[in-house]
Design goal:
The chain is built from 8 helices and 8 strands.
């Protein structure tokens, strides 16, 4: 999977907010969750803590397939929630009777819990997209990866009112064997994509539409964004693509678990 260039904006915006205090807090969360008995991989040097309830493990392999069958697509929406664009995306999904998977950045979810709960109430699924959206996290330590994944999981779950993310998508596809196993041990299936709409680059709605139509043969999981800048082109493209996909006989599903 190709990485997205120029997407370090979350790191710059969030780094100041996270700081040393947040790192300490995340480490505490991590040590309470990742080291529990029967759970997933623990970061080096951290002792196991008493077990606490968590989601059942799933496969650590990166999923692309749809539970909707051979002629279904998975709509996935990354980087939100955003108070401007997420409501517009939700409205389009509702109007077209489509369910999607929202890959949320932890601090965004924490800042907009009302939107997270709207996503859940509408029947969409949640996905952990880390704390800082660091596309180079596959070159960082295991303890760093654990903090990024598990703190975002906590933030999203809290914002949703207790609904846990069902998937984990590494920023830019920066998965590692460790991060995949850790996410799976917390009930989050690693989630890839087959069609990159390129909407993050804002090439124009017609270009986004053409990219999706041209790459549908690659597989069912399509990547869009509802945050990280002006997403008007994404909204416009979805307004055309969702009914077009239905006209072509596609159904809409979720990534298999």
């Amino acid at each position: 999977m190709a990485r997205h260039g120029g997407r370090g904006w979350y790191g710059r915006v969030i780094a100041a907010a996270v700081g040393v205090t947040a790192v300490a807090a995340v480490t505490s969360v991590w040590s309470a969750q990742a080291g529990q008995s029967g759970g997933g991989p623990a970061a080096p040097g951290v002792s196991a803590r008493p077990a606490t309830p968590k989601a059942a493990p799933v496969s650590p392999s990166i999923v692309h397939a749809s539970d909707g069958g051979a002629h279904a697509v998975n709509i996935t929406i990354d980087d939100g929630p955003d108070p401007v664009w997420t409501p517009q995306v939700l409205e389009l999904l509702r109007d077209n009777g489509v369910k999607a998977t929202f890959c949320m950045v932890g601090p965004q979810a924490e800042a907009h819990p009302d939107l997270v709960r709207q996503v859940v109430a509408a029947g969409h699924r949640l996905c952990d997209h880390t704390v800082s959206h660091d596309t180079g996290m596959d070159h960082k330590s295991e303890s760093y990866q654990a903090r990024q994944i598990l703190e975002a999981e906590r933030q999203i779950t809290k914002a949703s009112g207790g609904v846990r993310p069902m998937y984990y998508r590494a920023p830019g596809g920066a998965f590692t064997p460790y991060s995949r196993k850790l996410a799976a041990s917390h009930g989050m299936r690693p989630l890839g994509w087959n069609v990159d709409s390129k909407d993050f680059e804002r090439p124009g709605s017609e270009a986004i539409i053409a990219t999706v139509k041209g790459e549908l043969g690659n597989g069912p999981t399509i990547l869009f964004h509802d945050a990280g800048g002006d997403r008007a082109q994404t909204v416009a493209a979805l307004r055309t693509l969702l009914p077009w996909l239905k006209q072509q006989g596609y159904s809409f599903g979720f990534p298999v678990r």
